[in-house]
Design brief:
The protein has helices at residues 17-28, 49-59, 74-84, 104-112, 131-143, 158-165, 174-181, 204-218, 221-240, 246-276, and strands at 2-10, 34-42, 63-68, 89-92, 118-123, 150-157, 185-190, 283-287. By secondary structure, the protein is α/β, with parallel strands linked by helices. Helix 9 runs antiparallel to helix 10 (246-276).
Length: 294
C-alpha cells in the first residue's frame, strides 16, 4: 500500500477550494492500492481560505492545513508542504484546478509501474493568456534553459523529495531545484485550462519579479550579459570617439555601469539573505490529518 501526499499552496483561494477538494478526492480514490492525504498550506490569505480549510479538516480526516503567520510566497509554501508530507509519493498542485486532477492516476502509474522518479505535467499551450505574457514566459524559459511549460505540477518519489529537502537555501526557486536534483522524469502534456473561480494572483509585475528571482537563483546569464554589454560599449566608444558627443557618452556609459552594478548587486543581496539564515516560513496555526486512508 502506497501513500500519496498532495501539497496545495493556497493564497486567497476561497472560491475554488471546495471544488478542488471534491475533484482531487474523486481522482485519488480511483488509484488502486494507495492511501492519500491532502496538505493545504495557507500562505497568509486575507479572505475566507482559513475558514474553509478548517471546515475541510473537520469533515475529511484526510485533510490537514498549515497556516503561515504572513505571506511568505509560493516557494515557501511548497517547501513547507514537502517537509510535512508523509507519503512515499508526493504531488504539488495548484488549488485553481488548472493542474488537471485526472493526471494523478497516470502519474502514479509512471512511478509505481514504469519506475520513474518523477512524473510532471507539461503545459503545451497558453490559451487564454495575452500575447505579451505568452512571449515573456517563452523567453524566460529560454534564458534559464528549461523546457517551456514545465511547472510545479508533478508527482515525485520519496527519494526525490528527500533530495529536494536537502536544498535549504532561503531564496528558493523550485523549478530550478527540480532540475538541480536530477532523477528520471516522465512528462505528460496537457492543455491550458481556465480557473474554476476567483482571479489569478499573478499579474505581469509579479510574474516579472518571480522570473528575475529564478534567473538570479539558477543562472549567471545577467553577469554574462553585463560582460557582453561592457565589451560592446568599449568597442563602440572608439567609433564615437572622433565625434565627441560628451553628454551622450556620459549618460550612455553611466547607465551601462549602473545596469552592470545592479546585476552584481542582486547576486550580492542573495548571498546577504542566505547568510542571515532566517526561517523560510513561520507556521501560525495547523491541523493534522486524522487518518491517511481511503
Amino acid at each position: 500500500m502506497h501513500c500519496i501526499s498532495v501539497i496545495v499552496p493556497c493564497f486567497n483561494e476561497e472560491d475554488v477550494l471546495q471544488a478542488f477538494h471534491q475533484e482531487v478526492t474523486k481522482e485519488l480514490q480511483t488509484i488502486d492500492h494507495t492511501t492519500y492525504e491532502l496538505i493545504f498550506v495557507n500562505d497568509g490569505s486575507s479572505d475566507h481560505t482559513q475558514d474553509i480549510l478548517e471546515s475541510l479538516s473537520q469533515v475529511d480526516p484526510h485533510c490537514s492545513y498549515y497556516t503561515f503567520s504572513r505571506n511568505f510566497g509560493k516557494e515557501a509554501a511548497m517547501y513547507a508542504g514537502l517537509k510535512q508530507a508523509k507519503g512515499d509519493l508526493v504531488v504539488i498542485m495548484d488549488a485553481d484546478l488548472q493542474h488537471p486532477p485526472r493526471l494523478l492516476k497516470p502519474m502514479a502509474h509512471a512511478i509505481l509501474d514504469e519506475h520513474y522518479d518523477c512524473c510532471a505535467g507539461k503545459r503545451i499551450d497558453r490559451q487564454g493568456e495575452g500575447k505579451l505574457r505568452n512571449f515573456l514566459s517563452h523567453s524566460f524559459y529560454k534564458i534559464i534553459h528549461m523546457q517551456d511549460g514545465a511547472g510545479d505540477f508533478r508527482m515525485m518519489s520519496r527519494q526525490m523529495v528527500d533530495a529536494i529537502l536537502e536544498c535549504k537555501e532561503y531564496n528558493r526557486y523550485m523549478k530550478g531545484i527540480f532540475s538541480f536534483v536530477g532523477f528520471d522524469t516522465k512528462w505528460i502534456p496537457f492543455h491550458n485550462v481556465e480557473r474554476v473561480g476567483g482571479r489569478s494572483k499573478w499579474n505581469l509585475k509579479s510574474l516579472f519579479t518571480y522570473a528575475l528571482q529564478g534567473i538570479y537563483s539558477f543562472s549567471d546569464a545577467p553577469i554574462q550579459w553585463c560582460m557582453g554589454i561592457g565589451l560592446i560599449s568599449l568597442l563602440a566608444s572608439f567609433v564615437f570617439l572622433p565625434i565627441r558627443p560628451i553628454v551622450f557618452f556620459l549618460m550612455f556609459f553611466g547607465g551601462l555601469q549602473i545596469l552592470c552594478l545592479s546585476a552584481i548587486g542582486e547576486y550580492a543581496s542573495k548571498c546577504y539573505l542566505e547568510s542571515k539564515n532566517r526561517p523560510i516560513y513561520i507556521i501560525k496555526k495547523q491541523s493534522q490529518a486524522r487518518e491517511i486512508q481511503k
